[in-house]
């Protein structure tokens, strides 16, 4: 790696002669031995700015922003009635037609997409925080703490997810908030497992041992030397999960376990419009297509992030 | 003169190892089986590294060299025996895979700074100390902000050395510091280690497969086999009059050294 034109020093030459300040002074600040490294190599310029895993999330942020502001394009409010009348066919005045009360389906879908998207992100974020915390503690402490936390996690994993979600909502009453809580309860254990596995694996690697030897505190070790290594796999799982959650949310709302009626929820819209499937198919099909499209977009994004982070973590 | 030295009194050794044994539990072959006898990686080693001295450990793969080093720096508890460290900053170690001993996502400068933080060096001094340390090991100043991936193998080696000497320890354990480097780089790193030893009074305990390296840097060589020290001698004596058959074998395996020994 050096480009020096000089004869490299040979081993039998032994040490370079000591110069400059005495040994005691040298103990304070190491003496420069730059002399030995004439022709120091330059570092490759691009390599210095290692991009972080967080850059992979930029597309998610952009899509979220678009979804957030999309409802300004909606010509009507979620519960506003389009003057073209109920069950009108798609037309320039009502792009996706109107439903049985005369509400504008296009407007309701734009608003419904926003709810679904941010609800899915919310559940994932909550699941990651709870699961990440439990996984990090289990992985960092090991031993009994690890065993207890992981058995609890296994317990949650062994519960049938849809049934648990339905039970929680049935007990607390259907509302969007309760649906999110129910889904978070069944979602976090996966993240606990991933984070715990990554932290354990990283803790066994030489860099963790070296940091320990350098005198890094335990908290700092976990936060700075172990958890960042779990970020890539967690982000990949998160991004691939958004699609699943959108579908799960739509499913629960389809069977009536989402926000109560006037709210523009895609699953519920589709369910209630089902009776008009023949004759006015846009009423149930348009929101269903929106769910499919949103889930597809989420999965494509997840795949892209997966591929990008995979490349990055190949060391 | 290093702190803790009194004129006329020989300085205390950097480390004294007495009867160190390290066993590793073997996994049970099947559940409810009787616990198998533990595996003995280091089987009763006595060793002393003098103040600012240099001792090389040679030995075949699996003979317990890394395990011994890890016990000396305190990463592993010995199963039995005593390890007494001399005065001064606690020992540091250059790991067998130096590149992997750096945290992949943390800039080199930060990792060196952490070492200063651990020893309560005030924040205001850290920047200058990091820069001086990088310079001391011959890394360009830009390396401070580089993550390990952005450095070459040899540069990573130096970064690992930089972290270890940012606060000069009384003893530096090096696990095969040059085996992954090409000949001229290896020479540079060995020179650096010698230089650190002479200027900072850092004692060296290093493992090597390279007898020529041992000869260039060490005052004393110990030969390990199956967890035990089978021979120990001042460097020149070991090469001119190897006593143990395994040592002779080792020397015979290095062509240029054989000529000298013959
Ligand atoms: N954590 C551990 N658990 C179980 N066995 C271990 C552990 N660490 C080391 N050993 C065993 O101890 C023995 C000595 O290992 P050690 O790493 O000290 O050898 P070494 O002399 O450094 O070899 P090499 O030259 O290949 O690095 C090996 O057989 C190894 O399998
Ligand atoms: Mg080893």
TrEMBL record, chain A:
Keywords linked to the UniProt accession: Cell membrane, Membrane, Transmembrane, Transmembrane helix, Transport
Entries under SUPFAM superfamilies matching the protein: MetI-like
Matching InterPro entries: BP-dependent_transpt_permease (IPR050366), MetI-like (IPR000515), MetI-like_sf (IPR035906)
Membrane topology: Multi-pass membrane protein
Primary location: membrane
Pfam families tied to this protein: BPD_transp_1
Entry superkingdom: Bacteria
Region entry Disordered, spans: 1-24
Membrane-spanning parts: 53-74, 117-141, 161-190, 226-259, 279-302
Subcellular location: Cell membrane
Residue ranges of every copy of the ABC transmembrane type-1 domain listed in the record: 113-302
PANTHER family: D,D-DIPEPTIDE TRANSPORT SYSTEM PERMEASE PROTEIN DDPC-RELATED, OLIGOPEPTIDE TRANSPORT SYSTEM PERMEASE PROTEIN APPC
Recorded family membership: Belongs to the binding-protein-dependent transport system permease family.
Name this protein carries in UniProt: ABC transporter permease
Protein species of origin: Svornostia abyssi
